[in-house]
Amino acid sequence: MQTTLCFERIFCVLIAFLNVLKNVLVVSSVRSRRSGGSIIASSSDNTPAAGLISSINNEQIGKHSAHLTDQLYQYILQHTREPEILQQLREETAALPGSQMQVSPDQAQFLAMLVQIMGAERCIEVGVFHGYSSLAVALVLPDWGRLVACERDERCLDIARKYYERAGVTHKVDVRHGLAMDSLQYLLDNGEGGSYDFAFLDADKRMYHQYYEMLLQLVRCNGLVVVDNILWYGRTANPLVADKRTQSLRDFNQFLLSDERVCISMVPIGDGMTLCRKR
Ligand SMILES: C[S@@+](CC[C@H](N)C(=O)[O-])C[C@H]1O[C@@H](n2cnc3c(N)ncnc32)[C@H](O)[C@@H]1O
């Protein structure tokens, strides 16, 4: 009897171990599906110098939704337009640390589409890195539009500024070097609450809730706050993962679900984005 119980316990421990191993492998396989591409053709578009991404062949693009196979994602990339200047920035960044942090070309195209649909003129980005997503937005803003770009790392901003310059959008981008909380507070203190159309949140994950509260004050009614990485490579949905960043994103997702101030839509693009439209 005791031997049977002992075997049962060993069996249960083994199953639990295998489950943990499976989940770890799922998370790491999603992360390791690095895909990239090269432009093979230019096409005219309402966005500048758009091109098509031909193949997945390198480590330039770090993210896609967990439910997509590599084949499906390659197909999406092959049907994504990426302005040439963004391609250049992506290629330069690919050789540098942190390249997986920037949004993928399909996400950038999606952000630019949202900005265009909204006719947005005043935008904010929290977390610029080398400027890939901010440039995608700045490119489609009208000439008199303004994007407040918040980033704490001056070296990242050097690269971002170089590409704003090359793309001829420097006059549209108001770079704020420093902690994003301070930059957002400055805008609020400056009486700019309710005056922005669009905000993109993509900085330190554990601060998302605080940034969100400030961005929600800064956008107008019917303005949009887009939050990146809400799937966190599948970790937020995995109850076995409980590190602080994951838990913080999970709590934030749960909070958004019942935040009556906004209408929400969780979109499985890239590493997952939640669209929050201010009521
Ligand atoms: C995920 S990356 C942004 C990627 C960028 N949105 C893109 O797609 O190209 C996050 C960036 O947020 C910046 N960041 C993190 N914490 C910050 C803070 N407290 N204030 C300002 N920037 C911060 C990091 O330095 C990093 O460059």
UniProtKB/TrEMBL annotation:
Keyword Transferase found: yes
CDD domains tied to this protein: AdoMet_MTases
Keywords from the named record: Methyltransferase, S-adenosyl-L-methionine, Transferase
Keyword Transferase: yes
Pfam families with a match to the protein in the record: Methyltransf_3
Cross-referenced SUPFAM superfamilies: S-adenosyl-L-methionine-dependent methyltransferases
Entry's family note: Belongs to the class I-like SAM-binding methyltransferase superfamily. Cation-dependent O-methyltransferase family.
Name this polypeptide is given: Caffeoyl-CoA O-methyltransferase
